[in-house]
Each structure stands twice: as C-alpha cells, then as structure tokens.
Amino acid sequence: MQYQKETKILTISLILTVGIVIFGYKSGQKLTNLMANNPQLSSGNTQGDRISLGETILVNNDINNEKKTGVKAFGNGNFAAAITQLEASIKVNRNNPETLIYLNNAKALSIGKTWEIAVSVPIGSNLNVAQEILRGVAQAQDELNRTGGINGRRLVVAIANDDNNPEIAKNIAAEFVKDTDILAVVGHNASDVSAAAAQIYQDKLVMISPTSFAKSLSEIATQASQGNYIFRTVPSVDFVANTLSDYMIKTAHKSKVAICSDSQAVDNMSFSNEVTTAIYSDGGKSINISCDFSERNFNPRAVVDRAIKAGADSLILAPHVDRINKAIELAQANKGQLALFSSPTLYTSQTLEYGQANVMNMVLAVPWHPAAISRNYFTTNAANLWGGQVNWRTATAYDATQVIITGLKQGNISRSGLQKVFSNPEFTANGATGKIEFLPTGDRNGAAILIKVQPSIQSLNGYEFVPLSQSGL
After folding, report:
1. Which part of the chain is the Leucine-binding protein domain (predicted)?
2. Which of 26, 77, 244, 377 is deepest in the core (most CB within 10 A)?
3. CA 354, CA 252: separation in Å to the nearest integer?
4. Whole-angstrom Cα distance, residue 460 to residue 444?
5. pLDDT (tens digit, 9 = 90+) per residue, 46-66?
6. What is the model's pTM?
7. Is the preceding peptide bond at 369 cis, omega within 30 degrees of 0?
8. Confidence check: pLDDT of 10 > 50
9. Which 8-state DSSP code applies to residue 236?
10. Residues 81-90: contacts with CB under 8 Å, at least 24 apart
C-alpha cells in the first residue's frame, strides 16, 4: 500500500511537472517557433527574433542584468523567477515599456487565464517612436491587470518589431493572423506600413493604428467584403489639415505657403494634398518649390532659398517619421526667415532637442497634448508610471488598447465579435484623448488641436510644446 501511495504521488508530480513545462513552452515560445518557419521575420541583427511575449529582448538600449535574467527565465517558462527579475529591472529603469509589458505577461501567464493582443512598432528604425507607442499599450495593460483583468482574465501583449518596413509588416501581420490566440492588433506606425499590413488583416483580424493618418486606410476599409477590420485612434488627415490651414490663413495671416513633404511617406503625402486643398479653400495659395524629404541629395539651404525667391511667407514641414532629422535640418537652414508649421510627425522630443531656437514658434496640428484636457487622469497616471510627460503617440496607443479592452468587456470575445462591436455606430470608449468614436470608414471621429514650440526653463531641452490657447497668442 505504501509503495502504491508513493507511486501515485510520483505520478501526479510528474504530470504536474510536464504540464508546467508544456504550458511554459507554449506561452513563451509559440511565436518564436512560428518565426523559425519564416526566415523573413528574422531581423538579421542583434535584435534577434521580431516577435516576443517576453522570451526575447527586442529593445536593446538600457538593458540591465535583471532584465536579461528575467527574459531568460520567461523563455524557460519559469514565470515566478521572471517576475522577480523583471520587477527588479523596473526598479533600475522604470521608463522601459517593453520590460513592463513582459512583467505583466509573466504575471498573467503564471495565473493561466488570459486574453492576448499584439502591438507592432518600428524598434529597429525609430526606437523613440516605438517606445512612445509601447508606453501607451503598457500603461493600459498595467492598469487593467492590476484591477484583475476582464472576468479574471489578464491581458497578454505580444510585441513585434516591423522596422517601419511594409514587407516586414506584412509578414508579421500574416503571423498574427495565423496565431488564433491574438484577438486584435495595435499598429502599425507609418501609414505606408499600416496600409500594407491592413491588406493582410482585413476580413480576418482587427487592426487599430494609433499613428497612421493616410486616407489610403479609409479606402481599404471601404473595400472590405465582410465588414471593416481597420480602425485608428488618430483624427482623419482631413481634420488635421483643415485645422492647421484655418489657423495659418485666418489667424497667423500667412497666405503664401510652401510645403515640404515626403514622397515615400503615404501619410504625409495625404496630409500635403489635404492641406493644399484647405489652403486654397481658406483663401491662401500653395507655393510649389519641389521639396521632398526623401530625395537622396536633399539640400535644406537650397529649399529655403527657393521658397523665399518664390514669394513664400511660410513653410509646412511634413516628413516621414524616420526622416525627422531632415525636417530639423530644414528648420535650422531657415533661421526664422519663414514661419514654420508642421504635421503631427514633428511632435516629438527629437524636434525640441535638436531644433532648439530654430523651431521656436513653430505651430503643429496634433491629436493630443497633456494640457489640452483638464483633470486628465491619463496624464497624471503616465507621469507617475514613467517619471515624466509622454507624447501624443503614447496617448493614442493607450486609446487603441482601451478600445480593445472596452470591446472585450462587452463580452463578444472573438475576432469577428470585436469587429462587430467596433463597427457599431453606438460604440464609444473613453481614453487619454477623450471620447473615442469611429466613422464607418474606421476613422476616428474627432478634431486636431494646435500646439506651439515655446521656450521653457523647466524643460531639459530649453523648449516645450504648449497648446496654442496657452501660448499667449
């Protein structure tokens, strides 16, 4: 009897051990195995695999030993050790959203009841932008999971690095579609990347872009055969362009406008086209100076000279997100001669850090600013979580995640179920940018706001973005 009892105990222990190992392997390695069968998803550099729940470090800056150890434990399915090490890593660097996402994933998987979503960002090509988006997703996940999740199920987030490359994004989208555990995707960043991936997601998996403005996404939505699956939490490019044009012509009295856009950035080409139409509608004139940030031999000094010679009194900057540096070089060459205006792309700390006095008084049309909504809980929570102010991309990524969370809470938990919820004209969600509603095209039903670069003694850069209503002008 004693022998049979010991045998029974050993058998149960073996079953439990095998179960834990299998569960850990499935949770921590399933996406890695998918990538092994698709070489195009390999980054080909030190970033390793392109998709991770927590078993691979994708963000390679500011790595500490605690994070390395935690990620290794995660990959081995040892979530208890992963939690301990990742918590220690956050104490060393609390401003790393990848670490917080991996920590929450480890906690959720250790419990075993989860809902899974994914986010795709350009880690390899624009780390600042990628981190801004990840902070929004991480904050929404953290707030939800700290309160017990949805009906006891915590949210798990898979992170992907698409390098803002349309072909890589399409491959990642295909892997997300294959992984039936993933219920929705936050992404992608640049509009040309989102448009490429949207062709894969449409009719299969909801995609909510927090940063893509281009009208091409709306056009994809209108072609959907089984209901639109493509949404975004930024205002339509029409709203952004009209807001900026109205201010330029009617308030700033700048009526001869030269536009510098980027032929390789579909979102800023959309913006350029829409703002040109709006300028003429408002009584102004667009000065054609042939300015393209994607040109190999882009010459900012020559651009400014051509604009002034053509009679322009102002200059609109609309670069690709990965060519912000060229727009800053153009502002430096301008030296305050022409009034500067911008698409939302330049609403980033990089603009202030490197633009300095050359971008002072530049006016931008953007989706959000931390001071634009009074008593905004998101702004306060973000400052407490990350140790400082966050960017509009963080706010709209937070909103994209909140939209998905709101949909999951309504109970129709499936890919097609979420699509039906978001397509309902009565659907609303509350987020960092206020009330979120979608038009039939999947566009955000909302307006842009205007901000201005002003000197600041409180900012490390010496300058800050201030809502136009608070700039004294």
Report:
1. 128-441
2. 244
3. 25
4. 33
5. 334 899 999 999 999 889 999
6. 0.84
7. no
8. no
9. P
10. 82/54, 82/106, 83/107, 83/110, 89/64
